[in-house]
Amino acid sequence: MTKALGATSTTDDVLEGIDLRGKRIFVTGVSAGIGVETARALAAHGAQVVGAARDIEKAEAATAQVRKDAAANGGSFELVELDLANLKSVRACAGRLLAREEPFDVVIANAGVMATPFGHTVDGFETQFGTNHLGHFVLVNRIAALIRTGGRLINVSSAGHRRSNVDLEDPNFERTSYEPFVAYGRSKTANILFAVAFDARHRGRGVRAAAVHPGAIQTELGRHMNPGQLQNLVDRINQQLAAEGKNFGWKTIPQGAATSVWAAVVAPADEIGGRYCANCQVGQIVRDETTITALSEGVLAYALDPHNAEALWKKSEEMVGESF
Predict the structure, then answer these.
(1) What is the CATH number of domain 11-320?
(2) In the chain, is it the N or the C terminus that has fewer CB atoms within a 10 Å radius of its CB?
(3) What is the distance between the terminal CA atoms of the chain, rounded to a whole angstrom?
């Protein structure tokens, strides 16, 4: 009988008995947190993993165990440089990958920033939208031809998408008052919408795309929040959950990476294509925001709306100066 997977499942649970030898997988953001664990779990089951990071020296140190587990199990691991907040770096990374002409079975767009102070990327985009969405938008579209038939794109999003829909009239907060978690919400909604639009464009050739929510994990992603802010957030979540007799708990990093791995190589492609997943399950669309709780696996309807996804795609092309 197949083991049931859920919120407490780890990467080892998800990949139990699975041989990934012969699979080639690209993962962004492998210098910390769930990116490192995602790469480790896949390489430990025989996959050839290419990891991308802005700080190669930091990533080399962070991925020592990835290399050990890869070597012990027939997998491999290598690093490439990528700064998602700089489109020159993004295009250079894509160019290097294309020049090698080595296809990927899966691309996992994992890297991201959260709740940053107001700022801009090298190209003048609001930091979170520019890094979390536009950097990946250019990278993935430039290397899309490398994704094999039957392959997948997995965008790491967040339940934080509930904080805000995208704002295509003012994506850089030029007229809107900046609030860190609203900006984060916009970027995470964009991650989901990008998966929806990419799936629509590529499923005809057997390539599917999905977005995933890792869960609440204590990683470097929260480095822009002070301890008081973090505790206030946890307190608010617990207040929401109290009525249901539940209590908030952090996921471990292997639990947080589980849904990325599940969607990448375990879940049926037709089940996850164009969808949002959490806790190793496909999330249900929630149209009434008042019914959604902090730990709900649901996704707000605007994040999966195909018209919204197409509008974002068009705006993103306009912003980065490229058509895909």
Answers:
(1) 3.40.50.720
(2) N
(3) 44
Reported as a single tens digit per residue, the pLDDT across 239-280 is: 555 555 555 567 899 999 999 999 999 999 999 999 999 999
Provide the 3-class DSSP secondary structure of residue 10.
coil
CB within 8 Å of 143: residues ≥ 6 apart: 26, 94, 97, 98, 104, 107
CA distances (Å), origin 266, targets 11, 19, 45: 11, 11, 13
Q: Which of 157, 187, 260, 316 is an active site residue?
A: 157
**pLDDT tens by residue, 126-180:** 999 999 999 999 999 999 999 999 999 999 999 899 999 999 999 999 999 999 9
What's the whole-model pTM score? Answer: 0.91
Active site residue: 31, 164, 184, 316, which one?
Answer: 184
Which entry of 158, 188, 251, 260 is annotated as an active-site residue?
A: 188
Report how far residue 6's alpha carbon sits from residue 259's, in angstroms, rounded to the nearest whole number. Answer: 9
**Chain length of the chain:** 324
> In the annotation, is 184 catalytic?
yes
Q: Which sequence spans correspond to the domains of the chain?
A: 11-320
CA nearest to 299, candidates 315, 317, 279: 279
157 included as an active-site residue:
yes
